[in-house]
Every structure is written in structure tokens, then in C-alpha cells.
Amino acid sequence: MLTAPCVLAQTVIVADAHSPLPALTREQAEQFYLGHGHTLPDGSVVTLADLPPGSIRDQFYQQLTRKNPSQIRAHWSRMVFTGRALPPQQAESMAQLRQWLASQPNLIGYMPAADADGRVKVLLRLP
């Protein structure tokens, strides 16, 4: 029996619509979301937001880092244990993420592309 290939919805990395943050490269975004950096070439410091555990978050990390949820948890456990980085701040919902984006100009988050509207600025499209 043949099954249709799994088609993932496009995910976007976003900031507030009025944010001064520039577009990101995939490499920059991956470094940020793996805790290997938090500064842009111009010296701007970014903070990161995660959505709650679930399919959107799992898909985001798979698309960006090619790591599954278990691998991401293990990665962040090591980063925290060794004192190298803290994981992104976790929003309780998409609504809370939108509130945070509106109030913090250097905050970066992610969402399905279909949810990106005039309130957000798309910094990178995945995959």
C-alpha cells in the first residue's frame, strides 16, 4: 500500500511588524534556536520564544534543525546543565506569543505561515 508523502505546512520565523530586526538566514535562526548565539552581526541582541509542546513546535524544530522532539529536549538539557545557554521562553499559546512580540521589539518567535498577518514581520520562511 502506498501512502502520500507527508506535506508539512510552511513555518515562518517572525518578529513584531514594527521590529527593527532584519531578515535572518537559516543558519542564524538555527544557531539562535540551538542556543549557540543571540547576537546579530550589527550587535542587536535577540530573545527567543517557543510555542508550547505540540505539532507546530515539533515541525518547526524538525524543519529548522532536523532534530526530533527527543533530540531537542536532550540538546537543551545539555546546554542548561553545562551553563552554556537557557532555552527560549515558552509562550502558553499563540495569543500570548503575539502579545510578547508586540511588546518586545527584539523578540523572535515562529508560527505557521497561514497565521502570519500584518501584526508580524516575517524574518525567515521554512522549509
Question: Can you put this structure into words, describing what you see?
Answer:
- This protein is of the alpha/beta class and 127 residues long.
- The chain has helices at residues 26-33, 55-65, 69-81, 94-103, and strands at residues 11-16, 47-50, 89-90, 107-112, 120-126.
Q: Order of strands in the sheet with the most strands?
A: 3-2-4-1-5
Which stretches are low in confidence, meaning pLDDT under 50 for 5 or more residues running?
1-5
| Total strand segments | 5
Count up the helices. Answer: 4
**N/C terminus separation:** 28 Å
β-sheet strand percentage: 15-25%
List the quaternary state of the chains.
Answer: single chain
Write the H/E string, N to C: EHEHHEHEE
> Helix/strand-derived class?
alpha/beta
In this structure, how is the largest beta sheet organized?
A: 5 strands, mixed
Shape: globular
Rounded mean pLDDT score: 92
**Rg over CA atoms:** 15 Å
Proportion of residues in helical segments: 25-40%
Protein name: Phosphate ABC transporter substrate-binding protein
Provide a short characterization of the protein structure.
By secondary structure, the protein is an alpha/beta fold. Helices cover 33% and strands 20% of the residues.
SSE topology:
Layout: E1 11-16, H1 26-33, E2 47-50, H2 55-65, H3 69-81, E3 89-90, H4 94-103, E4 107-112, E5 120-126
Parallel strand pairs: 2-3, 2-4
Antiparallel strand pairs: 1-4, 1-5
